[in-house]
Structure formats: structure tokens, C-alpha cells
Amino acid sequence: MTNNSFSPLVGQPQAVEILTQAVKQHRVAPAYLFVGMDGVGKTLAARCFVELLFSAQSGHVTSLHHRLRQGNHPDLWWVQPTYQHEGKRLTAAEAAEKKLKRKAPPIIRLEQIREIAEFLARPPLEAPRNVVVIESAETMAEAAANALLKTLEEPGQATLILIAPSPESVLPTLVSRCQRIPFYRLDPESLTLVLTQTGHEEILQHQTILSIAAGSPGSAIASHEQLKIIPENLLQQVTKLPSSYSQALQLGKKIAQELDTEGQLWLVDYLQQFYWQQCHQPQIIHKLEQTRKFLLCYAQPRLVWECTFIELLTSDAGIPRL
């Protein structure tokens, strides 16, 4: 058996080797925890691993690959965090399509965990085992995590894959029942390869975006998409410090009016990297980290940004002013 199923995955040789050998030696664990920062290939690795598992007893690899990409394989249950809207659950992508603005992030809900238990109550129909993949497992509330714990204790003829940023972000009792598979930041060469292969070479010209990404191709692509959404005149203004209180207030108001919460949180990341490259002043980075905390606490965004720029107004950072 080869690891051809993992050919799209770049920069994670350890994970590929562990998962490939597990299938080759018929020692697939009942549960895995894929951990690492966002955008380094955990979700892609889960798809590749499922394909390898299912193709182990199937001669129709091309057809299988297509079905898995379409999400219509009867023995695969893929779970994503959801919003609750008008009595329906929506993934982040579905909410974006409907242009819904949500203040709180999506979560894995108790009813989704119950659906997993129902799915696993029947034997696999085509594959050697049922597989469940849970993205952003760290978003499970305690009730949902406890319900999943019962399933992990008796998974039956199944393998569960939990995807999370770190072991600490998941309930310890869940972590103890999973085999941990670490995923790492990509080195510059691997990062360049992924961005080139996916048609995002232009990102390589944006040093601030690459600094935000910190070895994560997914984060680099997402940041670049967010950069294109920010109005150009606003971006030009925020990369300079205000020179008066009135300018600080106007800039805070403009950010609150033109950017949603997600955009404002991204702007914090961008400004931290941009200002650091300009002046290497830790106090500015710390101030912007406070800005992030206040935004996450649902403080009034306009007031948060006004206070941020008023405090930056008094800094002597060597950054050009408006």
C-alpha cells in the first residue's frame, strides 16, 4: 500500500507516515485527535486518511475520491460547527452565503453529537468501517463533549477523527481516548509550494500577510482574501497613526462602520504585524492585543477603536502620522 492518498498534503511527513502505517498494519485506532494551528492541513489530512481507509478494500479509487469530495459516502459523517438560525443549523459557509452577520462563532452542538451516535448505531454499508470527522472539536460545550465521550468509550465498528488547534483546547477525558497526531507549521519552502500549487503566488509578495500566517497556508489565503475586502482608503489610514484626537475618533468610527467583527479582529492581527515591522515597539503590540480582547468581549467596537487610537496618538513609535 502506498500513501498516494496523501499526495495533496504538503509539509506533514510525520502525520502521513503514522496514518499510512496504521492502515498498512491494520492497526487503525478507534479515535484520533489531529492537533495543530489552523490552515496547516489537518482537514485535508482527514480527507486523505478517510480515502485511504475506504480504498483499502475498494478497487474504485477514482470513484471513491469523487464521492468523498461530494460528501455522499454512506459510511462517512462529517461534522462542522454551526449557527442556529430560524430553527435551522447553518455552517459558517452557509451563513456566509446567506450573508448572515453573527457575533458569536459557530459551535458543535449537542444535537450534532446525538446524530453521530445514531449514525454509528448501524454497521457500515460499503467501507470496512464507519468514519466520523469532527472539525473544530474545541467548540464543543461541556454537554456535547460529555455526550461524545460515551461514543468514544464504545465506538463499535468505527473510527472518529477530532480536529482541534491543541490538546488543551479539548476536554481532557476526550484527549485521553484519542491517538494524538501532531501537525506543524510549514517551513518557508513548503509554504511557497502550497501557495504556488493553489494559485496564490501573489501572496508571496505580501510580507505582512506571510507574517500573520506564520507557516500556515490556509491562514495566508484567508488573510489575503480579507485584505481584499478592506476598503483601500481605510487600509491606508490605519497604517498611519493619527496626529490629533479628532482624527483618532474619526478613524475609530470609520472602522466600526465599515468592518464587521471578523474584519476588525483580522485588522488587529494585520496592524500588529505591520506596526512591528515598522518600529518594533512592544507597547503598541500589547495595546492592540487589548483591543482584540475587548472586541471578543463584545464591547462597543467604535469606543474600543477610538480608545486604541487615542492611546497610540501619544506613542513615539516612528510610524508616519495622518
- Write down how many β-strands occur, each being a DSSP E stretch of 2 or more residues: 7
Shape, per Cα inertia axes: elongated
- Order of strands, main sheet, comes to 2-5-6-1-7
Mean pLDDT: 89
In DSSP terms (H or I, runs of 4 or more residues), the helix count works out at: 15
Low-confidence stretches: none
End-to-end CA span: 62 Å
GO molecular function, one term: 3'-5' exonuclease activity
EC number: 2.7.7.7
Pfam family, one: DNA_pol3_delta2
GO biological process, one term: DNA-templated DNA replication
Summarize the structure.
This protein is an alpha/beta fold. The chain has 15 helices and seven strands. Strand 5, helix 6 and strand 6 form a beta-alpha-beta unit.
Question: Can you offer a commentary on this structure?
Answer:
With 322 residues, the protein is an alpha/beta fold. It has 15 helices and seven strands. The protein has a five-stranded parallel β-sheet, with helices on both faces. Strands 3-4 form a two-stranded antiparallel sheet. The longest helix has 19 residues, at 261-279. The mean pLDDT is 89.
